[in-house]
Amino acid sequence: MNTTKEWIEKYETVKHLLVAPMNYAEVFEKNEIHGKKLFVLEMGEIIFPTGELLVRDPLVWLSRAEKPYLTKVPRGKYSIETLVAEIEADHYRYVLTRVKFNENKPVIYYEALKGDENLEGVDNKSIFGFMVDAGLATIVDVETRDKYCDFVEKWYKENTEKNIYNDFFAKEFKENAMKNPKFQREDGDWINFKIPNTDLSIPMIQSGFGDGQYPVYFGYDEKGNLCDIVLEYIPIN
User: Fold this and answer.
1) C-alpha span between 100 and 221 (Å, rounded)
2) Mind telling me which InterPro entries this protein's record contains (predicted)?
3) pLDDT digits (tens, 9 = 90+) for 27-43
4) What are the two backbone dihedrals, phi and then psi, of residue 51, each rounded to the nearest 5 degrees?
5) Which listed residue, of 34, 50, 177, 217, carries a Cα 20 to 30 Å from 92's Cα?
6) 3-state secondary structure the chain
């Protein structure tokens, strides 16, 4: 479904209702919130070759049919980081994941949309977001998505009776937990998987409290310039 003129006109009338309840950039600068200690976990780099992004569950909802967001970001290589909360001693939850496109200071965040959402009845509690069914989230460029789909299809052709998480990615998660044990359980809570025979990687990150629906926001500075993209796993307002 292509984005229509009518959809864009409707969006302009409800855009003010799709603003994040907080400034996520300011949250990333805090040491604690609601009595919980906060930490920033660096997860390496990702490349956006086209600037057309998707945020999805990489094991269930990431297919070639999925539309990217309307907002295009600058092409390039960026760092990816996740805000971690210490729920109790040595027990952590991932709260937000962010990719910054520049060092500008965001002053407002609007929900990321694909341009085919039903905007009827939208209010300030409406969330579109992305669905999670395997407890994982990823942010990828459409080119990365396509290379990843190529990899998954090839893997299943060669491993017809197997499951790609149990028989492949579980080991990747465990190995990453051994290399980067901070804020991870023994079996691993994140990877930044380099897709074989490419220079592209796909992060896979435990999504807060598991399965559900999670919002994504683009941050803008006072001049309306795009600053970053944020995935929210746990509401903290």
Assistant:
1) 12
2) DUF4241 (IPR025335)
3) 999 999 989 999 999 99
4) 85, 5
5) 217
6) CCCCHHHHHHHHHHHHHHECCCCHHHHHCCCEECCEEEEEEEEEEEEECCCCEEEECCCCCCCCCCCCCCCCCCCEEEEEEEEEEEEECCEEEEEEEEEECCCCCCCEEEECCCCCCCCCCCCCCCCCCEEECCCEEEEEEHHHHHHHHHHHHHHHHHCCCCCHHHHHHHHHHHHHHHHCCCCCCCCCCEEEEECCCCCCEEEEEECCCCCEEECEEEEECCCCCEEEEEEECCCCC
Tokens of 114: 């694909």
Residue type, 225: N
- Single-letter code of the amino acid located at 55: V
**Radius of gyration for the chain, computed over Cα atoms and rounded to the nearest angstrom:** 18
Domain ranges of the chain: 5-232
In the chain, the percentage of residues whose pLDDT exceeds 70 is: 100
